[in-house]
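B., you asked whether I could sanity-check this one before it goes into the benchmark set. Here's the sequence:
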Amino acid sequence: MLDLIDVRKTFNAKTVNEKVALDGLSLHLNDGDFVTVIGGNGAGKSTMLNAIAGVWPIDQGSIMIDKTDVSRLPEHRRAPLLGRVFQDPMTGTAATMQIEENLALAARRGERRTLKPGITRAERNQYREQLATLGLGLENRMTAKVGLLSGGQRQALTLLMATLKKPKLLLLDEHTAALDPRTAEKVLQLSEKIVTENRLMTLMVTHNMRDAIRYGNRLIMMNDGKIILDISGEQKKNLTVENLMTAFFKASGEEFANDRALLS
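And here's what the prediction gave me:
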């Protein structure tokens, strides 16, 4: 499970640049929940993911992952519990290392380093099988440098690396925003496949309203550091972009103003 309880985060407190990013945020996710997150610029979406990952400390509240209180743990202590894919395809992989070497690093996340061989034959066979599930032919290029891959291939590899050890929580931070529409669709389909097959508890931030509606079993919308809409079940299945915008206006009292989301 994931529990955010009255989480607050303010940047540049008590200055003219003060910004309340998370304002008493509370959220509960059950095991296997695939939750899409949408909201306008500055709504607190990425701040919420960064708070969960421990990128910066929260000012107040608590964060529980699988009954473990991680609120005061540094980022590296939370890493074994989390998988994360960022917006930039260049983030999350080592460009000068081979595909199989990147997978080996991901497989050893949270473990003690030893002087044993870097990649065993059994591991190499396992990586080949897992790469084949992506349908991108990367299983035939395992010794290729990751920096030679396209953005879509690299993002698909990052997704596989983030889920290699079956994390308690998967964070997808606008992970298709930098890709062209066709490649983005492929990566989203892979994301849904991996999340569903492994029953991974997932938070996926997106700027695309249609993707937020289409994927996952639950949708939350944020505004001013709070969750103002939480939609699931039949209500989500029957949701349209127009209905979502209307619901946002009723909940916030203002128009939804996000060009990226509206044009997607």
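One thing to flag: The longest helix spans residues 181-198. Otherwise nothing jumped out at me.
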